[in-house]
UniProtKB/TrEMBL annotation:
This is CRAL-TRIO domain-containing protein. It comes from Aedes albopictus (Asian tiger mosquito). SMART domains: CRAL_TRIO_N, SEC14. InterPro entries: CRAL-TRIO_dom, CRAL-TRIO_dom_sf, CRAL/TRIO_N_dom, CRAL/TRIO_N_dom_sf. Residues 90-263 form the CRAL-TRIO domain. Coiled coil: none annotated.
Length: 294
């Protein structure tokens, strides 16, 4: 499918932050005069405490974890340890995974990512779980695609500072979907979106939810602390409620906005054609050659 004219599903990899984002970074504790010191403090802590063995220790890589935890070195170290523990226990989500094999999630419009940002500069991930057919697409593929998008998002300096937001559209959610949920699945979702990745999910907006979601959510409640609960917003079909958080001009038409919707496949095509991104993903265990797929 040809990409619409004027729309670019491309990562913004420039290390120099736009003025507005620089102001946000400063409020979060980012100080150019102390950047090198903080990075070295984190590097020293990794070597001294030995709680994890990062596959990289360069400045750009460590910077992601510091930004994700507002430049608090100890918290950044703990995040890194959780990140590598998650990777160790979920190797099936990335090892020898070819991103192009996840195209079906875009074809079925289950997961998409906006090529534009919201009013605060955040990327928006859309999850339409009602479109998911468990008999066709394994639950593991949803996790693979989500992890891939978060890993890619962590490459953008702007996203490292402002984070991203998720819109979970539960229209069409059925008992068939609910049967695939379990406490372990709930824990993995929270790990990906909240506790283990070097890019912050600043808010999750639930729309079009019904009674099936109310049943599933009972598994999540015991796992959520107060801070996590503060990031959850429930809107149902009330678009005005959603617009209090995300301006309508930055939302697709189906959510009362002005933007069209774009498939996930556009992102895959661009990512797989970007040598820097491919190299980053290969370091993480992904593969670009379909012949490598088992």
């Amino acid at each position: 499918m040809p990409e619409p004219e004027g729309v670019k599903h491309m990562l913004e990899m420039d290390k120099d932050l736009p003025p507005k984002i620089s102001e946000v970074a400063a409020k979060q504790g980012e100080d150019p005069e102390k950047t090198c010191l903080k990075i070295q403090q984190l590097r020293d802590m990794i070597y001294e405490l030995g709680g994890c063995e990062p596959h990289r220790m360069d400045d750009d890589y460590l910077l992601r974890f510091l930004r994700a935890r507002f430049w608090k070195v100890e918290n950044s170290y703990k995040l890194m340890c959780r990140y590598y523990e998650f990777r160790e226990h979920n190797t099936d989500l990335y090892e020898n995974v070819n991103p192009m094999t996840l195209r079906s999630l875009g074809d079925d419009n289950i997961i998409t990512i906006s090529p534009y940002r919201d009013q605060e500069g955040r990327r928006v991930l859309f999850f339409k779980f009602g479109n998911w057919r468990p008999s066709k697409i394994p639950l593991t593929d949803l996790f693979k695609a989500t992890l891939l998008m978060l890993e890619v998002g962590s490459l953008e300096p702007i996203s490292q500072v402002v984070g991203g937001i998720g819109i979970m559209d539960l229209e069409g959610l059925s008992l068939n979907h609910a049967w695939h949920m379990s406490p372990s699945v709930a824990q993995k979702i929270i790990a990906l979106l909240v506790t283990c990745m070097p890019v912050r999910t600043t808010a999750i907006h639930i729309v079009n939810q019904g009674w099936v979601f109310d049943t599933v959510f009972q598994m999540f409640k015991p796992l959520l602390n107060d801070r996590m609960r503060e990031r959850l917003f429930f809107h149902g079909t009330d678009r005005a409620s959603l617009h209090k958080h995300i301006d309508a001009e930055f939302l697709p038409e189906r959510y009362g906005g002005t933007k069209p919707e774009y498939p996930y496949t556009y992102w895959l095509d661009h990512l797989c054609g970007n040598e820097k991104v491919v190299h980053e993903l290969e370091q993480l265990g992904y593969v670009a050659d379909p012949a490598s797929e088992e």
